[in-house]
Structures are given as structure tokens and as C-alpha cells.
Fold this protein.
Amino acid sequence: MPLDNAALIFPAIRRAEWVNVFRVSVTLKEDIDPRTLQRAVDHLKPRFPSVYVRLGSGLFWYFLEEVHAVPRVRQDYAYPLTHMGARELRRCCFRVLYYKNRIAVEFFHALTDGSGGMIFLKTLAAEYLRIKYGTVVPPTDGVLDLTQRPRDGELEDSFQRCSGKHPMSRAESNSWRLSGTRESGGYLHLITGVIDTKTLIAKAHEYGGTVTAFLAAVMARSILDMQAAEVPHRRQKPVKITIPVNLRRIFGSETLRNFALTVNPGVDPKLGEYSLRELVSEFGHQLALEVTPQRMAGRIAANVNPQKFPAMRLTPLFIKNTAMRIVYDSVGETKGCLNISNLGAVAVPEAMRDSIARLDFIIGVQYSYPNNCAVASFGDMTCVSMIRNIEEAELERRFFSGLVELGIPVSIESNDTKGTQTKGK
Amino acid sequence: MYCVKCGVKLQDGVIDCPLCGTPVWNPTGDVGEAGYPCRYPDKSYADRVAGLALIGVILAAVSLSALILCLNTYGGVAWSSYVMLGAALLYIVAFLPGWFRKNSLWSLCRWTLWLFAAICCISVSPPGGIGSCPSPCPW
């Protein structure tokens, strides 16, 4: 199976110590039985042929090849999104982890995006509950029917179908870069802020925006403050937030592969100071302006058209890899300070709602961004997961304490056990 | 429990606030549940810096061996220039950009300039270098 258009970049830009991965996890109300979980993972294989794959490389392109052996479930690690090396990718491009009452699935981004990953996770949790407790979960709300064969639409590269005729220019200004003292050994700090969904929505509406625009505005205000403390005003750069957009609703796709593009709304501090209400308005309007079918089709065309050039198709893979890596290093991560990837309110079938305590979504750090942020809501609980590969938690402190100052109570959880008295390590 | 500085609610058993590091007042001595186990992944990939350094040492050893051999045999650098230049070229083009995380394009350009400078130096080097082997030299 060839890689979809968005996935082409991920194998080319991976490094010995970094690869683009993300995690979705579900926390149940009882401890996980690894054997039952393994059986559930085994049962899902025929239904998800685009997920049970390994990464192969040919002379001209990378490709995904169905695996024969289902990956073994394993216990979670001390931090999420541990490095997925070349050897592991050649065996299987995703892993299933468990810890206490949590099931986590970590995907190499070339397989799918957050929405596709969440469908896999919900189907896995439904099958686990069926085997373990006999719970019959109907195939609705993103849970797939395991007795059916995969539909063609689930396996398609929707970028090819939805590409516009004219490519849109990708030129835009660079953003200020966050930095810090890198952690050694690939360790990642995760701080999750748990927020009441109704309170968050009410506050976002109070400021006249959506939850995504509101969180992006609070994040931008934190970064603007950090830049103001470090950089003289005349040398300050725009502060932009990279926001992935799920294209399935816009183009009516049911693909389980990648189908998202990013936009980079932001503000330039040289133009003047912004109140939070103005920031929310800026981000809301810029998002509304960018996220239209026509502009998205133009952005897709800008990515899809080079893939069709005969010269590009005939260029050997190692030359393509070098070129893509140079371009990515030069311009790929310069347009935003960090990602805020919001999965939104995750719906699950009523039959499994009572068995689930929470759902989490975590994206890994980019190659040069030290911070990233992902958001998922389930019921009354919104989990804002901020990950970083640097020692300093300055951005997290400003962001979460900023929410508290606005009157939004935040409960903080961390994977760092150094400052914790815990039981059951 | 709450952090007195950030105002966020913290997990039971936390000693320091994970956001600001402020010590947490825990009068009841509550102990919390760990969200992640103390299990670290095996490092299956070679350390990048160690690998780059090892390759550098190997290429330097090969170059030095060729130089010593030529000095003993011909009394000059003779064909060892080619070995040294080849090793330098291989390292600079293939491995040196790996030392730099940020921008491989810039580092590649920079070290290519250094390579040209090195070639220029060697091409104008005094007798004993490239193009002026003593008589026993087969090159």
C-alpha cells in the first residue's frame, strides 16, 4: 500500500533519535487484563488493514506492507511516546500499551492521524469490553463493526480525491521559536490539565470564540509574555500556533488514513498589544478564514501536485529523502511556535460510556519544537496534554495558571515521579 | 491539594508543583497513584554523537596509517594525500552534518566551503604532496 500524501514526509524526516508519533488512550474503570487485550488486538486485524502495517522502502518510494504477526501488547513506559526506531517501524508501525486501567495506542504518524487513531482505539476498547465483560457495543459513534469487511472509503488516500485544481501558495512569515535545556535520553515530560468541559465552553463563549480559538489565544498570550521577557520589542517575531484541521467533515471522507492539514493563525507583537478578547477574536477569525473547502483544496493541491511530477517519481528514494529533509529543516517547522491539536468532544456508544473514565490524546514533540499540546474531551472532562523535551515548564506554568486566573479550575497531572510520593510504581 | 503559586489542583502525594517547583503543603500525608510506571525503554539505537565520533576516529586512523606508510616508504606524503582527502571528503559530506541538529542545509554548505578550502591548500602544497610523488611512487 503506498503512503498517503501527508504521510510521505514522515519516513523521510525521521532521525535516529526522533520520529513523529502520537498516542490516544482510554482509561477504563477496572484494571486491564493483558491477555484479553491481546485477544482484542488480534481480533481487530482484518478490520484495520491500513493500521496493521510495517514500513518498507523501495527504490523510489516508501510503502506500507501488512504485517503477518500481530504486535504483542506491552506494559507502558515511564513517559509516553518513547522512540519508535527504524527496527520497530520495519516490524510494525503502532504499539499497544497498558498500565493499570489504561489502554494506550501509539501510532507512527504515517499510518493515520488523531481522528483515525481514535476510531481504532474506540473499536479496540469495545472489543476488549465484549471479550472481558460480554458488553455488546453497537457499531456507532466511531466504533467499527468487526464482522464487516473494510470499506474502500476507509482505505483511500482522500488527498488525491479532494485536491483542488490550483495550488495555494505556502509562503508565510516565520514564527518565534520556543527553546530550553534539552532532556537527555529522549525523556519527555507530560503535564495534563484536566478541565471541566462545560466551564471551558462557557468561558470560550464569554470571550466570543470556540474552544480551539480560546485555548490558542491563551497559549499565544503565554508565549507573547515569554517573548516579551526575553527579546527586545524591535526584534520580536510573530507568535503563531499550528492547528491541525480534520478534513473529513469538510470533504465528506471516511478514511482511516491521514486526512488533516495544518493552519498557522497568529499575531505580530510589533503591531501592538492584544487583550485576551482580541486574541480570541484574531484566532477565531483567522481560523474561519482559512478553513474553507476552497482554501483547503488549494493547500492539498500544493502538496499533491509535486507528487505527480514525472521527474519526482523517477528520482531515487535517497535523493528524495535528502531533499525533503533539507526543505523540512529549513522551512517545515518555522511557521508555528507549537501545535494545538484538538480532537474535540469524543463520542462513544452509550453501551460503553459507563465503562470509560476518560480519553486522552497526546502528540509528540516536533523535531525542533520543544513543546506540543493536544486536547480531547470526553463527557465533562477535557484533557489538555502538554508534552515537552526540555527541562523548563515555563510555558505550561503560564498557560495553566493563566486559565486559573480566568476562573477555570485546572487539575494538573504529571508523569514526573521525582516530586511525588506514590504507591504502585 | 493546590499549588499556592499557580493555583492549580495537584495530584495527591505531590511534593513539588510540576509547573513551578513550589513545595506543596500536604498536612494529611496523602500518597498518590503513579500515572506512569518506572519502566524505561531499551536504547536500541546507537547514540548519535558516539557513532559520529567513532566514524571520525576510524577514518582518521586509516588516514594516519596511510601517511605513516608513505613517509616510511617514500619519504613524503605521496599517495596518502588521496586517502586523507578521500576520508575527509567522505566524513564532511556524509557524516559531519549529523553533528548539527538545526539546519542540515546550512551545515552542508558551510562544510563544503571548508572542503574547497582544504582542496585549495593541498593543490598549492609544496613538493611531496599531490602531483609530485618521488620516483619510487607508482602514481
